[in-house]
């Protein structure tokens, strides 16, 4: 299971704390993340994280390419809904790719918890069949 981790600046602490809380589940997956988010999650959890560029420099698009090639199974994107993002078109494109390719995506901690608990129970095993 390949999981992408993305967080806007004011949500990075929240994602790091989430990764610590669900470290036992994340340890069963391959983790990918945008720049600073990946560094922070790796340092906090000790888990291996493949880092892409930061979001504004193309990291969102690199993750989007994995989605388009059916190489990503789950996206956790902790967005900051109260702050305008200069690379908003890239964010919308990433979310659109998740919708087009039926990739589960969480943009807040509540949905992320549901997805992680589902992954732990095996509810997302259908992704392995799709990747076939």
From TrEMBL:
InterPro entries reported for this sequence: Methylgl_synth, Methylglyoxal_synth_AS, MGS-like_dom, MGS-like_dom_sf
Q: What is its EC number?
A: 4.2.3.3
Kindly indicate whether the keyword Lyase belongs to this entry: yes
- Residues that hold substrate according to the record: 8, 12, 34-37, 54-55, 87
One GO molecular-function entry: methylglyoxal synthase activity
UniProt domain MGS-like: residue ranges: 1-132
Q: Name one Pfam family in it.
A: MGS
A GO cellular component entry from the record:
cytosol
**Reaction catalysis annotation:** dihydroxyacetone phosphate = methylglyoxal + phosphate
Question: This protein's superkingdom?
Answer: Bacteria
* Positions annotated as active site in the UniProt record: 60 (proton donor/acceptor)
Swiss-Prot/TrEMBL keywords: Lyase
Q: Which top EC class applies here?
A: lyase
Q: What is one process in the GO biological process aspect for this record?
A: methylglyoxal biosynthetic process
What the record says about family reads: Belongs to the methylglyoxal synthase family.
Instruction: Fetch the PANTHER family from UniProt.
Output: METHYLGLYOXAL SYNTHASE
What functional role does this protein have? Catalyzes the formation of methylglyoxal from dihydroxyacetone phosphate.
Q: Could you tell me what this protein is called?
A: Methylglyoxal synthase
Q: What is the organism field in this record?
A: Collibacillus ludicampi
* Gene behind this protein: mgsA
């Amino acid at each position: 299971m390949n999981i992408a981790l993305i967080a806007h600046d004011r949500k990075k602490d929240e994602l790091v704390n989430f990764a610590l809380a669900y470290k036992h589940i994340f340890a069963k997956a391959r983790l990918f993340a945008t720049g600073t988010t990946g560094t922070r999650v790796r340092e906090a959890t000790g888990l291996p994280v493949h880092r892409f560029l930061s979001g504004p420099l193309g990291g969102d698009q690199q993750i989007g390419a994995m989605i388009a090639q059916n190489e990503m199974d789950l996206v956790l994107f902790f967005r900051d809904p109260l702050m305008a993002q200069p690379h908003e078109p890239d964010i919308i494109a990433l979310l659109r790719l998740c919708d087009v390719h039926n990739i589960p995506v969480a943009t807040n901690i509540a949905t992320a918890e549901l997805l992680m608990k589902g992954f732990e129970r095996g509810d997302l095993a259908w992704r392995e069949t799709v990747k076939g």
